[in-house]
Amino acid sequence: MSKVVRKAVVPAAGLGTRFLPATKATPKEMLPVVDKPAIQYVVEEAVAAGLEDVLFITGRSKRPLEDHFDRNFELEEALERKGDSERLGLVTEPTELARIHYVRQGDPLGLGHAVLVAENHVGNEPFAVLLGDDLIDPRDPILPKMMQVREQHGGSVICLMEVPLESISLYGCAAVEPTSENDVVQVTDLVEKPEVSQAPSSLAVIGRYLLDPAVFEVLRNTAPGRGGEIQLTDALRVLASMPESEGGGVRGVVFSGRRYDTGDRLSYLQANIMLASEREDLGPDLRVWLQKFVATLT
Ligand code: G1P
């Protein structure tokens, strides 16, 4: 079996209820972060790591997402007629990024179930899962390091980040042991969204995974867990206890770069401001305005 990861799976079937009414008729993945849909950052991250085969797990009412990564001849022609090659580039760019495929999840039974739906497309090879709510700053890529760990050891590799203990119940949480490498840990156990008092550490699972295909068989046998959903964290917990000869073993790469959470409203606003304030075109004016605005706050 190839140890090289070539395919990315991007679950995008969620209802986005935290952003209603904006997400009544627009998929949450299409909400702009500055001026680009959140999901495009994720695809760009996958492609930058060499993953040019991207499978979206979608659901009903995700048409705009498919349209975004497809041609729009009417718009392209209009921009061509105007000679606006800069904007034309912005329109065609998403269509040329990757080989994009879609499969619908059908029943929304949880993240673990969404990953299981990818089995037919992925086949018997390791693959990446990227969650759209986690935006990793392109200046701090983490997938290359995760791929290196996978190539070295096989098994599955997850991305972990230190978070304040009081917010650990928003995440999957890992119990770990150190390895000879500073930012790589052996995952011994996992728990999905624990109470603070039950958390084995303050290491949160961030939405980047490299999974051994053994995960599919495990997911098929994973009962609904937290929130009545089939949890990927629960399947990883099983993988962590399985022998490496059977595709088991889970390592964690501890991420210390910039990450933005676009999954809840406050973090989404912060992500927009932080990213816009660093942009060459918008940053200088925004920073001046921000400083004045902050001074008016008491
Ligand atoms: C999912 C996972 C959780 C992980 C999180 C990262 O939860 O179930 O383990 O920590 O993504 O963003 P969600 O935020 O989709 O509820």
Automatic annotation (TrEMBL):
Enzyme class: transferase
This enzyme's EC code(s): 2.7.7.9
Entry keyword set: Nucleotidyltransferase, Transferase
Swiss-Prot/TrEMBL GO biological process terms: UDP-alpha-D-glucose metabolic process
Pfam families xref list: NTP_transferase (PF00483)
Signal peptide: none
Gene Ontology MF terms: UTP:glucose-1-phosphate uridylyltransferase activity
UniProt protein name: UTP--glucose-1-phosphate uridylyltransferase
Keyword Nucleotidyltransferase: yes
Catalytic activity: alpha-D-glucose 1-phosphate + UTP + H(+) = UDP-alpha-D-glucose + diphosphate
NCBIfam families cross-referenced by the UniProt entry: galU
Lineage, uppermost ranks: unclassified sequences, metagenomes, ecological metagenomes
Domain Nucleotidyl transferase: 7-273
CDD domains in the cross-refs: UGPase_prokaryotic (cd02541)
Species whose genome carries this gene: freshwater metagenome
Keyword Nucleotidyltransferase carried by entry: yes
Similarity-based family: Belongs to the UDPGP type 2 family.
